[in-house]
Amino acid sequence: MANLTIVSVDDEYPALELIRHYCERMEDVDLLEVFQNPQDALEYLKENRVDLVILDINMPYINGIELLLQLPYKPLCIFLTLETQYAVKAFELDVVHYLVKPVDFETFRKAVTKAKDFLQFKKSTEDQKKEDFIMFKSNYIMNKVLLEDIKWIQGFGEYIILITHLKKYMILERMSNFEEKFQNLGFIRIHKSYIVLSSHISSYDTANVYLKDGEKLPLGRTYKNSLKAYLN
Question: Does residue 96 contact residue 114 with C-beta atoms inside 8 Å?
Protein backbone atom coordinates (compact mmCIF):
# COMPACT_ATOMS: atom_id res chain seq x y z
CA MET A 1 0.00 0.00 0.00
CA ALA A 2 1.24 3.52 -0.83
CA ASN A 3 2.25 5.86 1.96
CA LEU A 4 -0.47 7.82 3.73
CA THR A 5 -0.33 11.41 2.45
CA ILE A 6 -0.89 14.10 5.08
CA VAL A 7 -1.37 17.85 5.26
CA SER A 8 -1.32 19.62 8.63
CA VAL A 9 -2.91 22.99 9.38
CA ASP A 10 -2.33 24.93 12.61
CA ASP A 11 -1.82 28.63 13.18
CA GLU A 12 0.78 27.86 15.87
CA TYR A 13 4.21 27.14 14.40
CA PRO A 14 5.45 24.97 17.33
CA ALA A 15 2.46 22.65 16.84
CA LEU A 16 3.33 22.20 13.16
CA GLU A 17 6.95 21.48 14.02
CA LEU A 18 5.87 18.85 16.55
CA ILE A 19 3.65 17.15 13.96
CA ARG A 20 6.51 17.25 11.46
CA HIS A 21 8.78 15.62 14.03
CA TYR A 22 6.19 12.94 14.88
CA CYS A 23 5.60 12.11 11.20
CA GLU A 24 9.34 11.74 10.62
CA ARG A 25 9.35 9.04 13.29
CA MET A 26 6.62 7.03 11.55
CA GLU A 27 6.84 4.68 8.60
CA ASP A 28 4.54 4.75 5.58
CA VAL A 29 3.44 8.37 6.00
CA ASP A 30 4.28 11.40 3.87
CA LEU A 31 3.71 14.83 5.37
CA LEU A 32 3.33 16.78 2.13
CA GLU A 33 2.74 20.30 3.45
CA VAL A 34 2.13 22.26 6.66
CA PHE A 35 0.23 25.55 6.80
CA GLN A 36 -0.10 28.25 9.41
CA ASN A 37 -2.62 30.11 7.24
CA PRO A 38 -5.81 28.03 6.86
CA GLN A 39 -6.84 29.93 3.72
CA ASP A 40 -3.61 28.89 2.02
CA ALA A 41 -4.27 25.34 3.14
CA LEU A 42 -7.78 25.45 1.69
CA GLU A 43 -6.50 26.56 -1.70
CA TYR A 44 -3.85 23.83 -1.69
CA LEU A 45 -6.30 21.11 -0.69
CA LYS A 46 -8.77 22.15 -3.38
CA GLU A 47 -6.06 21.50 -5.96
CA ASN A 48 -4.42 18.46 -4.37
CA ARG A 49 -6.11 15.37 -2.97
CA VAL A 50 -4.58 13.94 0.19
CA ASP A 51 -5.46 10.98 2.37
CA LEU A 52 -5.48 12.74 5.74
CA VAL A 53 -5.69 16.30 7.05
CA ILE A 54 -4.65 17.12 10.61
CA LEU A 55 -6.50 20.28 11.61
CA ASP A 56 -6.52 22.72 14.46
CA ILE A 57 -10.00 24.15 15.02
CA ASN A 58 -9.66 27.65 16.47
CA MET A 59 -7.76 29.52 13.75
CA PRO A 60 -8.08 33.03 12.27
CA TYR A 61 -10.10 33.71 9.11
CA ILE A 62 -11.48 30.18 8.84
CA ASN A 63 -11.65 27.48 11.49
CA GLY A 64 -10.82 23.83 10.97
CA ILE A 65 -14.44 22.68 10.74
CA GLU A 66 -15.26 25.31 8.10
CA LEU A 67 -12.16 24.36 6.15
CA LEU A 68 -13.10 20.69 6.13
CA LEU A 69 -16.66 21.44 4.98
CA GLN A 70 -15.43 23.56 2.05
CA LEU A 71 -13.28 20.85 0.49
CA PRO A 72 -14.60 19.39 -2.80
CA TYR A 73 -13.79 15.86 -1.57
CA LYS A 74 -13.78 14.14 1.80
CA PRO A 75 -10.33 13.26 3.11
CA LEU A 76 -9.82 11.53 6.43
CA CYS A 77 -9.42 14.04 9.25
CA ILE A 78 -7.86 14.24 12.69
CA PHE A 79 -8.64 17.31 14.77
CA LEU A 80 -5.70 18.31 16.97
CA THR A 81 -6.79 21.22 19.11
CA LEU A 82 -6.94 22.89 22.51
CA GLU A 83 -10.72 23.09 22.21
CA THR A 84 -12.96 20.42 23.76
CA GLN A 85 -16.42 21.75 22.92
CA TYR A 86 -16.36 20.62 19.27
CA ALA A 87 -16.15 16.88 19.92
CA VAL A 88 -19.82 16.26 19.08
CA LYS A 89 -19.52 18.19 15.82
CA ALA A 90 -16.39 16.22 14.99
CA PHE A 91 -18.33 12.99 15.54
CA GLU A 92 -21.01 14.22 13.13
CA LEU A 93 -18.29 14.84 10.52
CA ASP A 94 -16.98 11.27 10.90
CA VAL A 95 -13.45 12.38 11.76
CA VAL A 96 -10.93 9.65 12.52
CA HIS A 97 -9.89 11.07 15.88
CA TYR A 98 -10.28 14.12 18.11
CA LEU A 99 -7.04 14.86 19.95
CA VAL A 100 -6.70 17.51 22.63
CA LYS A 101 -3.33 19.27 22.95
CA PRO A 102 -0.77 18.51 24.23
CA VAL A 103 -0.47 15.13 22.52
CA ASP A 104 2.40 12.71 23.05
CA PHE A 105 3.92 10.70 20.22
CA GLU A 106 2.25 7.40 21.08
CA THR A 107 -1.23 8.96 21.12
CA PHE A 108 -0.51 10.67 17.81
CA ARG A 109 0.88 7.46 16.30
CA LYS A 110 -2.24 5.49 17.27
CA ALA A 111 -4.52 8.11 15.71
CA VAL A 112 -2.59 8.16 12.41
CA THR A 113 -2.42 4.35 12.39
CA LYS A 114 -6.19 4.28 12.78
CA ALA A 115 -6.46 6.50 9.70
CA LYS A 116 -4.10 4.21 7.76
CA ASP A 117 -6.11 1.13 8.73
CA PHE A 118 -9.38 2.80 7.73
CA LEU A 119 -7.98 3.85 4.36
CA GLN A 120 -6.60 0.38 3.69
CA PHE A 121 -9.97 -1.17 4.51
CA LYS A 122 -11.76 1.31 2.25
CA LYS A 123 -9.43 0.63 -0.66
CA SER A 124 -9.66 -3.13 -0.24
CA THR A 125 -13.44 -2.85 -0.30
CA GLU A 126 -13.33 -0.74 -3.45
CA ASP A 127 -11.05 -3.28 -5.12
CA GLN A 128 -13.59 -6.03 -4.63
CA LYS A 129 -16.03 -6.75 -7.45
CA LYS A 130 -18.59 -3.97 -7.43
CA GLU A 131 -22.31 -4.65 -7.59
CA ASP A 132 -23.80 -3.83 -10.99
CA PHE A 133 -27.05 -2.46 -9.55
CA ILE A 134 -28.43 -0.31 -6.75
CA MET A 135 -31.54 -0.66 -4.61
CA PHE A 136 -33.65 2.30 -3.49
CA LYS A 137 -37.19 3.18 -2.43
CA SER A 138 -39.39 5.29 -4.72
CA ASN A 139 -43.15 5.75 -4.28
CA TYR A 140 -43.07 3.29 -1.34
CA ILE A 141 -41.63 0.55 -3.59
CA MET A 142 -38.12 -0.91 -3.51
CA ASN A 143 -36.56 -0.68 -6.95
CA LYS A 144 -33.56 -2.42 -8.44
CA VAL A 145 -31.80 -0.55 -11.25
CA LEU A 146 -28.74 -1.65 -13.18
CA LEU A 147 -25.85 0.82 -13.12
CA GLU A 148 -25.53 0.67 -16.89
CA ASP A 149 -29.11 1.94 -17.22
CA ILE A 150 -28.60 5.06 -15.06
CA LYS A 151 -28.08 8.27 -17.04
CA TRP A 152 -27.68 10.73 -14.16
CA ILE A 153 -29.08 11.84 -10.81
CA GLN A 154 -30.50 15.33 -10.41
CA GLY A 155 -31.14 17.05 -7.08
CA PHE A 156 -34.19 19.08 -6.06
CA GLY A 157 -33.79 20.03 -2.40
CA GLU A 158 -34.95 17.13 -0.26
CA TYR A 159 -35.56 14.98 -3.35
CA ILE A 160 -33.49 13.54 -6.16
CA ILE A 161 -34.57 12.33 -9.57
CA LEU A 162 -32.79 9.20 -10.80
CA ILE A 163 -32.98 9.19 -14.58
CA THR A 164 -32.55 5.95 -16.53
CA HIS A 165 -32.92 5.12 -20.19
CA LEU A 166 -36.44 3.84 -19.53
CA LYS A 167 -37.98 5.98 -16.76
CA LYS A 168 -37.45 8.50 -13.98
CA TYR A 169 -37.60 7.74 -10.26
CA MET A 170 -38.34 10.34 -7.59
CA ILE A 171 -36.51 9.51 -4.36
CA LEU A 172 -36.91 11.23 -1.00
CA GLU A 173 -33.21 11.71 -0.30
CA ARG A 174 -30.70 14.56 -0.42
CA MET A 175 -27.94 14.56 -3.02
CA SER A 176 -25.23 14.42 -0.36
CA ASN A 177 -26.74 11.30 1.19
CA PHE A 178 -26.98 9.51 -2.16
CA GLU A 179 -23.43 10.51 -3.03
CA GLU A 180 -22.04 9.17 0.23
CA LYS A 181 -24.09 5.96 0.11
CA PHE A 182 -23.07 4.94 -3.43
CA GLN A 183 -19.73 6.66 -4.03
CA ASN A 184 -17.88 3.32 -3.96
CA LEU A 185 -19.82 2.32 -7.09
CA GLY A 186 -18.26 5.11 -9.13
CA PHE A 187 -20.78 7.94 -8.73
CA ILE A 188 -19.24 11.41 -8.77
CA ARG A 189 -20.68 14.88 -8.15
CA ILE A 190 -20.11 17.22 -11.12
CA HIS A 191 -22.47 20.03 -10.12
CA LYS A 192 -24.49 21.04 -7.08
CA SER A 193 -27.48 19.46 -8.84
CA TYR A 194 -25.94 16.56 -10.79
CA ILE A 195 -24.28 13.22 -10.06
CA VAL A 196 -23.13 10.81 -12.77
CA LEU A 197 -21.28 7.53 -13.01
CA SER A 198 -17.62 8.09 -13.82
CA SER A 199 -17.71 5.15 -16.23
CA HIS A 200 -20.36 6.98 -18.31
CA ILE A 201 -18.23 10.11 -18.81
CA SER A 202 -16.79 10.51 -22.30
CA SER A 203 -15.07 13.88 -21.85
CA TYR A 204 -15.38 17.28 -20.20
CA ASP A 205 -14.37 20.88 -20.72
CA THR A 206 -14.46 24.01 -18.57
CA ALA A 207 -18.27 24.18 -18.50
CA ASN A 208 -19.74 20.77 -19.36
CA VAL A 209 -19.45 17.03 -18.90
CA TYR A 210 -20.19 14.88 -21.95
CA LEU A 211 -21.61 11.39 -21.48
CA LYS A 212 -20.99 8.42 -23.75
CA ASP A 213 -24.62 8.42 -24.89
CA GLY A 214 -24.24 11.98 -26.22
CA GLU A 215 -25.90 13.82 -23.33
CA LYS A 216 -24.34 17.04 -22.01
CA LEU A 217 -24.52 18.13 -18.36
CA PRO A 218 -23.21 21.28 -16.65
CA LEU A 219 -19.90 21.12 -14.76
CA GLY A 220 -19.93 23.21 -11.59
CA ARG A 221 -16.94 25.45 -10.99
CA THR A 222 -16.26 24.05 -7.52
CA TYR A 223 -16.33 20.45 -8.79
CA LYS A 224 -13.80 20.79 -11.64
CA ASN A 225 -10.74 19.95 -9.59
CA SER A 226 -12.29 16.94 -7.86
CA LEU A 227 -13.50 15.59 -11.22
CA LYS A 228 -10.04 16.03 -12.74
CA ALA A 229 -8.39 14.32 -9.76
CA TYR A 230 -10.90 11.47 -9.80
CA LEU A 231 -10.57 10.73 -13.51
CA ASN A 232 -6.80 11.08 -13.53
Answer: yes
Q: Are 6 and 53 in contact (CB under 8 A)?
A: yes
Q: Where in the chain is the domain with CATH 3.40.50.2300?
A: 4-127
d(CA 105, CA 4): 17
- The CATH number that domain 133-231 falls under is 2.40.50.1020
Q: Over the stretch 84-101, which tens digit does the pLDDT of each residue have? A: 888 888 877 888 899 999
Whether this prediction's pTM lies above 0.70 is answered by no
Cis ω for the linkage preceding 75 (within 30 of 0): no
* Closest to 139 in 3D by CA, of 115, 162, 113: 162
| Nearest CA-CA partner of 187 in 109, 126, 117 | 126
Q: Which amino acid is at 217?
A: L
| Amino acid letter for position 92 | E
pLDDT one-digit tens code per residue, 41-73: 999 999 999 999 999 999 998 999 999 999 988
